Amino acid sequence: MDSTIPLGVFTPGVLSNFATVLIFVLIGFIFAALALWVAKLLRPSNPSPAKMTTYECGELPRGSSWIRFNVRFYLIALFFIVFDVEVIFLYPWAVVFKQLFTHPQLGVLVFWEMIIFLTILTLGLAYIWVKGDLDWVKTLVDRPESEPVRGLTEAPEEEVPTP
Amino acid sequence: MEILTDLIRSWFGPDKMSDQAVFITVASTMATIMFIVMALCALIFTWAERKVAGFIQSRYGPMRTGRWHGWAQAVADMLKILGKEDIIPAEANRFFFSFAPILVLLGSLLAWAAIPWSPGFVSADLDLGLFYIFAVSSLVIVGLLMAGWSSNNKWALYGAARGAAQMISYEIPLALACIPVVMYTGSLNTTDIVIAQQGGMLNWFVFRNPFLFVAFIMYFIASIAETNRGPFDMPETESELVAGYHTEYTGMRFAFFFLSEYANLFLVSLIAAMVFLGGWWAPIPGLDFAPALTFIIKGVLMVLLNMWVRWTLPRVRVDQLMHLCWKVMIPISLICVVGAGIWMMLSGQAGA
Questions:
Q1: Are B341 and A114 in contact (CB under 8 A)?
Q2: pTM higher than 0.90, yes or no?
């Protein structure tokens, strides 16, 4: 960028680089609206009740699909938050890692601090791994073998009998 | 950007426009160019994908439209999609249903702002560049969930839930794989990352040390999963979920999802080229006469590699997908981060 636009510093009257991002948002909206408008001019529109029904392979839809869904998706979301925050903490460390090496002791210290941080999180990963929360198909440990539970596993890992 | 700034200044005459006006003009021009590039790559890559799929399966793919190898097939598809009726199911949530495709499109467009095409030619030279790209591409996940939920369709909901689970899971190895590179560069600025790889193929980050090579492979696998393409196309498995989250979409709104998918495909390939494969630097020093072209060629080669993988490997199961991400790729990526750090310390490359 040229000298009239300072990097990342907010000065009144001078636009920072994030202003470009804002302009990208606006232009994106404008183009999307334009495309939809052009399509609106060209396309036919004759809705009928049958056409407006929810697609369910040609059958009449049964019930709403706004239902409770499997808990495994929430678990994945929880793990994601933990590990994504880990990554967010790793990035600033990675940026300064090279600079801090000019100082011999401090560089090693910085490295070991991150090793400790990663070890704690890896222990967390090992914990959820051992607990079986990373398994997509959950095994039901509480129930005896003789009592099959239906409808709780989506994709059982059982072998397909060969014909 | 300086080229464009100078061009606009000389075009309208010096001192005619204030700095802000020039800045806004430059940014709008860049946004428009990026949008056109996005639309073009969707057109070209849909055609290329069919041809690649055809050749891999010993057939020709599209041959009729436009005479030469059916080059106009994608254009014809686009025109046809323009004339398709826009159906919003009566049961759907109208606002979110209409808004989701725009959000998905925006998520892909925004990430293009920080791509460095050639020295100094980057729309937004952000200090947070790489981080910004990962941050805004997450908008796609929000749009995808919005689309799936608002359709009020079981297939769409399953597709969106799976898609979100897959994309957020693979975002972690994707971001972790780029950390060794950031450690070497000491900056998140995309231009700085490319400049750090100057001087021939051996200075590209893939070949710097073995951990970076593994990190590149991790990045490549995660990027396939991020773009929801085969063998990880769980959100839209035709055989079980009809079309996944865009089951209910028609016409232009469907096209937005499609456009975003191919734009993201090119985007992750360009990021791979930028972060690991030396960006605009040619393999042999001294051949850097066409930086932008070199960069785009690298991106296109990565896209072709992506297509090759898609049409060669069978689709994995959902549980295998999650197993691969959480139990294989995340541990390996973490080892890469630590290993690259140790390598830097031992080889003394850090202080330089």
A1: yes
A2: no
